[in-house]
Amino acid sequence: MSSENLETRERILESAWKLLTGSQASAVRMSDIAKQTGISRQAVYLHFPTRAELLIATTRYIDEVKDIDERLVKSRSASTGLERLEAFVEAWGNYIPEIYGVASALIAMQAKDDEAGAAWSDRMGAVRHGCEAAVAALERDGRLTQSLSTSEATDLLWGQLSVENWEHLRHRCGWTQARYIDVVQQTVGAALVD
Amino acid sequence: MSSENLETRERILESAWKLLTGSQASAVRMSDIAKQTGISRQAVYLHFPTRAELLIATTRYIDEVKDIDERLVKSRSASTGLERLEAFVEAWGNYIPEIYGVASALIAMQAKDDEAGAAWSDRMGAVRHGCEAAVAALERDGRLTQSLSTSEATDLLWGQLSVENWEHLRHRCGWTQARYIDVVQQTVGAALVD
DNA sequence: TGGTGACTTGACATGGTGTCAAGTTGACAG
DNA sequence: CTGTCAACTTGACACCATGTCAAGTCACCA
């Protein structure tokens, strides 16, 4: 078993990830994570001061394991703005399923917990930078629509790539992941290009 | 004062509405609503069995007072599919601010409370019907894009008109309401028409 | 041998929801 | 005038999850 030798901290993160990936993410309690890890609830608190910090650490852990940076770097190598936009939608859109469990738990917390809210905003701020870069590439090609300012175009793209929109189309509407990517590329193309 | 003669039940709904419209909607507790109404916390439970039911009753109350039906009826009188689509976006998009407080409290609850989740889904199901009708009108005019099925087009429109997307553009991105309506009409037009 | 760090056990405070039981009060019917 | 009933009050309590605190176990290391 590869997980036998992991430090307790990592085993906790693995457990959290696993449980959060299952259904009903926001119903996952500290005691569930402890049980899954095979340690006491209090031991979890020796590694993470609060539930919010554990969730945040879990997103960072997933980022690392799934190498989100690597995925996004690839989207930056596209030659045209349009290609770059599509590559970015594909890269991020295909990453959402990985973090969805933790993301939804964090989103559910943010209303009551400022720390969780700030952390999630921060996380999403990084996505906005990606959107900004894609919009800038489009503008450089002279293909950004006249009807939106740069920042409006960025905001719009950002919204289309939100976890909430992914959840809506994939879960509430039952779309496949492939169709989701396809249609978002198409929508975003129609809204922003030319 | 018009509210002096209201039955207690209505005064509770008014209080809930008022408090939920203020900031931090999901932080509104039963005791806050009781205090605002000028009655004991237990008295609230004499009228509404759970917090979820109170929130749901509040949305219905707002629907009634703000006459959402009337607003939507108007959008149905448009002659062309495109006009109808735009009228629907305008009608619903301008209604979201009215219910936003209650909506966000309900959305925050739905993760943990099945009853709240079901009620909110039901509510949103009604919006989907409106979307469906707008898409059907577009199709009748032969102006629905080839690249989406009827139900996909409906899902897409539905997502654009979600409370979450409104919150994203208006709150997170700071757009004005007018600009929000404008850009959503434009986006939805580009994605669905022709 | 003795100390240290990681963990366990168990108790407890906090904060919000929802329940229960025993009043109080005012209006209305007989 | 009196009894009753509905609406409301007061106060206590169970529940549940988070987070804290204190004391104890245990393996490893100097």
Helix content range of the residues of chain A, please? over 70%
Overall structural class of chain A, as computed from helix and strand content, comes to mainly alpha
Shape, per Cα inertia axes of chain A: elongated
Hey, roughly how much beta strand do the residues of chain A contain? under 5%
DSSP summary, beta strand count of chain A: 0
Order of helices and strands of chain A: HHHHHHHHHH
Main sheet record of chain A:
none
Show the largest interface.
A-B, 29 and 29 residues
Show unreliable segments of chain A: none
Structure annotation, total helices of chain A: 10
Provide a descriptive summary of the structure in words.
Two copies of one chain form a homodimer. Chain A has 194 residues and is an all-alpha fold. Helix content of chain A is 76%, strand content 0%. Chain A is elongated. Chain A starts with 7 loop residues before the first helix and ends with a helix. The mean pLDDT of chain A is 94. The interface between A and B is medium-sized, with 29 and 29 residues. Chain A binds a DNA duplex (30 and 30 nucleotides) through α3.
Q: Briefly, what is this?
A:
Chain A is mainly alpha-helical and 194 residues long.
Keywords:
homodimer, 194 residues, mainly alpha, elongated, DNA-binding
List the helices and strands and how they pair.
Two copies of one chain form a homodimer.
Chain A: H1 8-21, H2 30-37, H3 41-47, H4 51-66, H5 68-76, H6 81-110, H7 114-140, H8 150-160, H9 163-172, H10 177-192
Helix pairs in contact in A: 1-2, 1-4, 1-6, 2-3, 4-6, 4-7, 5-6, 6-7, 6-10, 7-8, 8-10
Chain A binds a DNA duplex (30 and 30 nucleotides) through helix 3.
